[in-house]
Design brief:
Immunoglobulin-like, Serine Threonine Protein Phosphatase 5, Tetratricopeptide repeat
């Protein structure tokens, strides 16, 4: 016989360490293995200042058990043991037969065994020094995971700790769960180990301001694709939690983690989901941070370009225009972004680009305007369709022309009539002060000129050079148009004054000392400095 007392269930005392505890407790069960004889015991730590044992000695009835509580006293200012999870501290268990001792209680008599029972040489005293101390609990687990300790140690503590929800979902003093700690350490192996113990994958990490983030949101933000995959395999939600500002898809898009974004979208993340504050989508965030590949992926998965954020009412195109990202603007336009959409200040993307001095975006945002193209071609159905899709009826192309300028210059009277009926500004001026009436008179379209005059346009409107439609018509000898304008109230006295002294060999097209030339981008006549003969002007027209 090598011992009188057996330690149940093992020879290791598990002491649980939790935040805020002044003392850490554990228990060990002593069982008398003798069938007929009571056994006296004494349990003593080698370093007595660290531990309190209660009861420290006693008598155990035959085949009976006794639970002994061991309390660990941490050093002042620290709640952590000097070494963990395994301690190198030693305990000595002395045991001796106690024949003839009357046992009144079922188990033992506490702290009443004389010390000389365990020292006399007349009795056979058994000494067991195999008792071990192991520290477990949330604080131990947090430090083991944060320090990246041995996987075996972490697994052992998890297995020997309370494996209920509380243990594996315990948090440290900063509110971080074990999963959050493993994510912050970029340790997919630790995440996989923790997932075996079925943690709450939706647990939030508390942050200042009342916001929080789930492990998936944290992993998405840091671009941990393998960890994201592991969490998704354990059914982590792809949607923004109620207390989070950003969802996983927002984090991935904002930080430019394309592979993480792809995994989230494959698992059904809502591509147009909004952040908690500001109403931005993942597309807004990716555009703002110039994450081009993320933008492409979002657009390929159905991201809407027309969603306006809550704060400024900006679309993704507004944001791209504000940053001056030309390739991003082109990409959004290719995917159907509406450049006529207005934000809360009534500004289109062009206005935003102009405000921020991004002149290189002007042509991209105005060139090839669908409304102006349809008007130029006289396609009334197309004009109607473009307006129904949200185009601004007074929107302008890269030269400041409205659809009415275009239709008037090309003589598309049906398109002109339709646009006027829809409420277009008939007196809108381009960058050089030209109205639609100037365009119609300049290009010789009497029917359009007559229609505009009947609709009450300003027949005396002047360009930035001070030129009226009548002056243009008379200089080009458009007699019919001249008559229409005069009958509509245009004044012709200034023309005679301006043409006095002109050379008889040339057309008196010396309005403000100017001539006409074709502007390539618009295909129209413009008044510039100088003069040339009528045959040249007609060739240009």
């Amino acid at each position: 016989m090598d011992r009188l007392i057996k330690l149940d269930p093992s020879n290791t005392v598990l002491i649980r360490v939790e935040p805020g505890q002044q003392k850490c407790h554990g228990t060990i069960t002593l069982r008398n293995v003798m069938y007929t004889m009571p056994v006296a015991f004494r349990l003593q730590p080698l370093i007595k200042t660290r531990y309190t044992v209660k009861p420290q000695s006693g008598i155990i009835s035959p085949l009976a058990t006794l639970i002994v509580e061991i309390t660990y006293h941490p050093l002042p200012g620290s709640n952590l043991p000097h070494s963990f999870p395994h301690s190198d501290d030693s305990f000595f268990l002395h045991s001796v037969l106690a024949p003839g001792v009357a046992i009144k209680e079922p188990s033992s008599m506490f702290d009443s065994v004389p010390n000389d029972w365990f020292t006399t040489r007349k009795k056979q005293v058994f000494i067991d020094s195999a008792i071990k101390i192991m520290f477990v609990g949330s604080q131990i687990l947090s430090h083991l995971v944060e320090d990246g300790n041995s996987m075996d140690d972490i697994r052992e503590v998890l297995e020997k700790s309370d494996t209920s929800w509380k243990s594996v979902n315990s948090t440290d003093q900063q509110g971080r769960t074990l999963l959050h700690l493993a994510v912050s350490k970029a340790r997919p192996d630790l995440v996989q180990l923790l997932l075996e113990f079925e943690p709450d994958v939706e647990a939030g990490l508390s942050r200042s301001g009342g916001s929080s983030s789930t492990p998936l949101e944290a992993a998405s933000s840091s671009g941990q694709a393998l960890i994201v995959e592991l969490l998704l395999a354990h059914r982590a939600s792809t949607e923004r939690s109620e207390t989070s500002t950003f969802g996983p898809i927002h984090h991935a898009a904002r930080e430019g983690h394309v592979e993480v974004l792809r995994l989230l979208l494959l698992k059904g993340a809502k591509v147009n989901a909004l952040v908690k504050d500001g109403g931005n989508t993942a597309l807004h965030l990716a555009v703002e941070e110039r994450r081009r590949e993320c933008v492409r992926l979002l657009l390929a998965n159905g991201a809407r370009t027309d969603i306006r954020n809550a704060r400024e009412g900006d679309t993704a195109l507004h944001i791209a225009s504000a940053t001056g990202d030309e390739s991003m603007v082109k990409l959004l336009l290719q995917k159907g972004a509406n450049k006529d959409a207005r934000n809360n200040q009534g500004k289109i993307a062009y206005d935003v680009a102009a405000e921020n001095g991004h002149t290189k975006l002007f042509d991209v945002l105005r060139l090839g305007d669908r409304l102006c193209v349809a008007a130029r071609n006289g396609e009334v159905r197309s004009i109607h369709k473009v307006l129904e899709t949200g185009a601004a009826i007074n929107g302008r192309d890269q030269n400041g022309w409205t659809a009415l300028h275009r239709a008037s210059f090309k003589g598309r009277v049906d398109a002109v009539r339709f646009l006027v009926e829809k409420g277009i500004d008939v007196d809108a001026k381009d960058e050089e002060g030209y109205t639609a009436l100037h365009c119609a008179a300049e290009s010789g379209h009497a029917d359009v000129t007559e229609f505009l005059v009947k609709k009450g346009v300003d027949v005396e409107a002047r360009t930035s050079k001070g030129v009226s439609a009548l002056q243009i018509a008379e200089s080009l000898h458009y007699v019919g148009i001249t008559r229409i304008l005069v009958n509509g109230g245009a004044c012709r006295e200034s023309l005679n004054q301006m043409t006095q002294g002109a050379s008889p060999a040339k057309i008196p097209f010396v309005i403000s000392g100017a001539v006409i030339k074709k502007k390539k981008q618009m295909g129209r006549i413009r008044v510039l400095r100088g003069s040339f003969d009528r045959s040249t002007a007609l060739a240009v027209l």
